[in-house]
Amino acid sequence: MAAAPLVYGPLPPADLLLRDVDVLDPRAEIDGRHDVRVRAGQVTELGAPGTISYEPGEELLEGRGNRLLPAFFDPHVHLRTPGQEHKEDLETGTRAAAAGGYGAVLAMPNTDPVLDSAPLLRSLRDAAAREARVAVGFLPAITRSLVGEQLTEMAELRAEGAVGFTDDGQPVQSAGMLRKALQYQRLCGGVIALHEEDKTLSRGGSMHEGAVSAALGLGGIPTLSESTMLARDAALAGYEDARVHFQHLSCAASVQAVADAKASGWKVSAEVTPHHLLLTEEDVRGMDTRMKMHPPLATDADRQALIAGLRDGTIDCVATDHAPHARDEKEVPFEQAPMGTTGLETAFAALFTHLVLTGALELALLVERMTAGARLFDLPTPRIAQGEPANLTLVDLDAEWVAGERGWESRSENCCFAGRPLRGRVLLTLAAGGVAYRERALSVVAA
Amino acid sequence: MNHLLSIEDLDRAGIERIVEQAARFSEVSDREIKKVPALRGRMVLNLFYESSTRTRSSFELAAKRLSADVVNFAASGSSVEKGESLKDTVLTLSAHKPDAIVIRTPWAGAAALVSRWCSAAIVNAGDGKHEHPTQALLDVYTLRGRLGGIDGASIWIVGDVAHSRVARSNIIAFQRMGAKVTVAGPPTLIPRGIESLGCDVRFTLDELDSADVVYALRMQRERMSEMWVPSLREYAAWYQINGRRLSPRQVLMHPGPVNRGVELSGEVVDSPQAVITAQVEAGVVVRMAVLYELLTGARAPSPGSGATAEAGAATVGERQLA
Q: Are residues B167 and B199 in the same domain?
């Protein structure tokens, strides 16, 4: 009997009544004001405003025009445990997720030691059950120690609860090696998530190759380091009839390669990060190390192609690639700094501010793309419906705030959106029936 | 001007001001006692994370001729080898309250970073492959001395542009002074996008004749092991500036140190067209002018940290999506 893929933390089940909230769940086809009752962590009643009466013992929240959304799902975060707890741990990372409106996240295996064995997976899952505030799934490595030479014991890992597999950060370079993993997937299942990067093209680079890298004297990474590898791996997946997911797309050529793969009927899906949707190589000009990440920020044309791809469904979902690093690790010259930006706490507000409010994306579509990751990994999609576990996010779409002004729930502060004015703030997150996050100012009418 | 981090910090008038000040200081170098008291009691700290003979000694001489106190700090043999970060080293040395820090590192943007951590005036003496602004100033000074002016001159920068901070600063400075700049070299060593700085790009020296000034860059041996070019022999065959390629009316420049027989043939180094030693001489007076301007000019209060985050905030905030 295989272990359940998602681990739930120790939060007690909530009892609460949300009175007259503006509910939006594109999948449940709900868009309008409702009373919502959560009992013992489940949505038990959903009715017209004013029709559900308060019962003693439950917490009462007035809607005040706030929107209730299904909690978001992030298929790509780095929780840094074990081994790098000075950057993040299961508690702080999932706290950041909850503060960003996420009900579940998938953690990457590039830890120290690498998550590549069943005993380590078991101990991590035990730790998550004690410490996590939102549901956590783990993607162990495709190859041992992420060196691309030997497969991990994928079947045993699956039995122990592996959601899928990835060599994120140290992508599989050898086509033959990846092909074996794709073949082995027939035995054990589990989506194989791929960070696409041809290291022979990216080596020595610390930002996108182009006018800005030439002006700054920084080594450049051409976007085809990603797109050629993606096309190769899509063809491999097509040949082996395997299920692969492409991580953090960064350029127009990759969007095209995913569209081609889907048109061929291959079983591929793709994600994109808020920073690739909103920032470009121009944001690297100041050599702010928070703007240094893999894959690097590319051109505005690439950014527009990513937005178009997310809108038309070529790109299936939004993922943050939340990559915390300690202050002293990022407070160094650009070329020496590690790659990565945090993203969980700003993803929704950044995308709402810069894509929804500007008219590039409808709110309902953004909500769909921020929750679609679950289905891609064969996990239940959060829905707002009677009988469903309460995976809910209450947001105030009028709230204005500055990213980072009140600090971060994450242990790290290397957020590429820090200091930027944003609209839309998460007030409350329920993850798997428990209250995972509550904005300090959120007032309770009765308790 | 609070710091000299990039040649971009200076407009044409600023470059001219420094070059003219350097010309006034050149008279000091010819005196029997080569010293003026302009910076008496000021402290200049040389912080070098890369080996450098001419730049460091040139800054040291410049500071001493202005009567400043000089402290040299080399990364090798210091706490840096014990793992001290750049920030901690700078904070530690700042405790001695230097008035100026001259810094060279192998990392782009390091001088700008240091300027946020301390109140001293920062002079970028080379940050990775990014910039070397005082080299650009001394090259402008040298060329003006030789040609009278640079306006309208055609300047070719030849060689390993990709790894050259000198190339980047000089492309900007020469253009700001009215010259037309062409970069030429093997396609593997011309970075994609360099034309966005306003220069032309050539992969052969076929049209070198059109240049008034030929500026050869140093070809480093380690570029061979990294396979940027097949061999030094092939490089020299295609890109060496020699008696055959250099015409008598052209001026030859090089930032030093020269690899004779690689980027330059011996006969052109020794020819009267070469102004390579004049460049070295100019180094001292130009750096005197830079230190003088930074340490005696009107200086604003020290900048606070986090300025870039705020500046960056505007770009996304103002961006409108189609």
A: yes
The pLDDT tens digits of the residues spanning A39-57 come to 999 999 999 999 999 999 8
Residues A344-384: tens digit of each pLDDT: 999 999 999 999 999 999 999 999 999 999 999 999 999 99
Q: Do B86 and A278 touch (CB under 8 A)?
A: no
Annotated domain spans of chain A? 16-68+387-438, 73-376
Superfamily of domain A16-68+387-438: Urease, subunit C, domain 1 (2.30.40.10)
Question: How much is the ipTM here?
Answer: 0.87
The DSSP annotation for A369-385 comes to HHHTHHHHTT-PPP--S
- For chain A, the 3-state helix, strand and coil shares in percent, each to the nearest 5, are 30, 25, 45
pLDDT at B222: 67
Q: Which of B238, B227, B130, B156 is nearest to B188 (CA)?
A: B227
Residue from the list B107, B308, B317 with its beta carbon closest to the beta carbon of A336: B107
Domain shared by B21 and B154, yes or no: no
On whether both B201 and B145 belong to a single domain, the answer is: yes
Whether B38 is covered by a domain: the verdict is yes
Asked if A211 lies within 8 A of B105 by C-beta distance, the reply is no
State whether residue B320 is helix, strand or coil: coil
CATH assignment at residue B180 = 3.40.50.1370
Q: Which has the closest alpha carbon to B263: B157, B169, B190, B142?
A: B157
Q: What is the pTM of this model?
A: 0.92
Domain count, chain B: 2
Select from B85, B112, B322 the Cβ nearest to the Cβ of A332: B85
Partners of B168 on chain A (C-beta within 8 Å) are 215, 217
Q: Do B192 and A210 touch (CB under 8 A)?
A: yes
CA-wise closest residue to A405 among A383, A421, A389: A421
Catalytic residue among A321, A378, A396, A398: A321
Q: What is the DSSP string of A417-443?
A: TTT-EEEEEEEEEEETTEEEEE-TTPP
Closest residue in A to B190 (Cα) is A214
Residues B124 and B157 in one domain: no
Averaged pLDDT, B139-168: 96
Residue B1 lies in a domain: no
**Cα A5 from Cα A438, distance rounded (Å):** 26
Beta bridge pairs of residue B50: none
CA distance A329 to B263: 39
Percent of chain A residues past pLDDT 70, beyond the cut: 98
Domain that holds residue B158: 133-279
Q: Give residue B134's pLDDT band: very low, low, confident or very high (50, 70, 90).
A: very high
DSSP B145-193: HHHS--TT-EEEEES--TT-HHHHHHHHHHHHTT-EEEEES-GGGS-TT
Question: Does the annotation mark A316 as catalytic?
Answer: no
Cα angle vertex B292, ends B291, B298, to 5°?
110
Q: Which of B164, B172, B192, B316 to mutate to test the interface with A (most CBs of A within 10 A)?
A: B316
Q: Which of B112, B129, B311 sits opposite A217 (nearest CB)?
A: B129
**Proportion of chain A above pLDDT 90, given as a percent:** 96
Distances (CA, A) of B127 to A264, B106, B226: 48, 6, 21
Q: What is the dotted CATH code of the domain comprising A73-376?
A: 3.20.20.140
Please give the Cα distance from A52 to A340 (Å, whole number).
Answer: 46
